[in-house]
Amino acid sequence: MKHRLHRHVVLVALLLVATGAVSAQDGEEPPARGVDRANEVITTNMQRQIERLTALLDRVPEQAHPGIEQAIESLQQGMTNALVALGEPEPPEDDDAPEGEAALEGEATPEAEPTGRERARQAIASGTGHAEAALNQAMAEVPENAQAGLEKALSRIAAARERALAALDRVDVGTPEQPAAATSRPAEAGRPERAERPDQPTRPVRPERAETPTRPERPTRRDG
Predict the structure, then answer these.
(1) CA atoms of 202 and 216, how far apart (whole Å)
(2) At a CB cut-off of 8 Å and minimum separation 6, what does 207 contact?
(3) In the Cβ-directed half-sphere of 72, how many Cα atoms lie within 13 Å?
(4) Residue range 187-199, pLDDT digits in tens
(5) pTM, 2 dp
(6) Considering only CA atoms, which of 114, 123, 113, 116 is closest in space to residue 42?
(7) Residue 21: what are its φ and ψ, rounded to 5°?
(8) Of 42, 84, 100, 217, which is most buried by a Cβ count within 10 Å?
(9) Domains in the chain: boundaries
(10) What is the CATH architecture of 2-21+31-91+115-169?
(11) Is the CB of residue 95 less than 8 Å from the CB of residue 42?
């Protein structure tokens, strides 16, 4: 069993290198993002459950061992299939799909192939689901006082599945995400030229003041 577990660990490590999940540059590992982050979350959570189940083998009756070993195999298979799905390219679009009038007339439209993310989700759900079924079967084989460890393992597997699926929900592509290219700063828009100040209207010429008319002479008064 331990030899088989070691073989799966080596396989997972090779898959991580192939998909770009483990990378280093200038001696420092850049923060994982996108598909790389999903690979990391899946591997960490699934491998942790496998290690816990392996340790549980020494603490439960032997009649529970077949169920636990089957759960370990299911988790390993689900993890491996999910990592492979994330590393595969997306299926090409079908150019022969009926459109327009042909689609309205009821011509069958071929179903689109699942994306890498969808296949990875199916692998995680299937692997953890089969592991839970195996552990439930193991619980039926042991006395009640030996079921606590199996119950805790079931709850941990469910939590690990939720974390893995949540990481996949943030992935939109089926291939390892490439680092985002540095966007150049847009050139600053030129400052608009100030509009010319309109010429100040000329001040109208003040008309000359009219001359005061001369007052007529007062007639002289004659004595009567």
Answers:
(1) 41
(2) none
(3) 22
(4) 455 555 565 565 5
(5) 0.59
(6) 123
(7) -70, -30
(8) 42
(9) 2-21+31-91+115-169
(10) Up-down Bundle (1.20)
(11) no
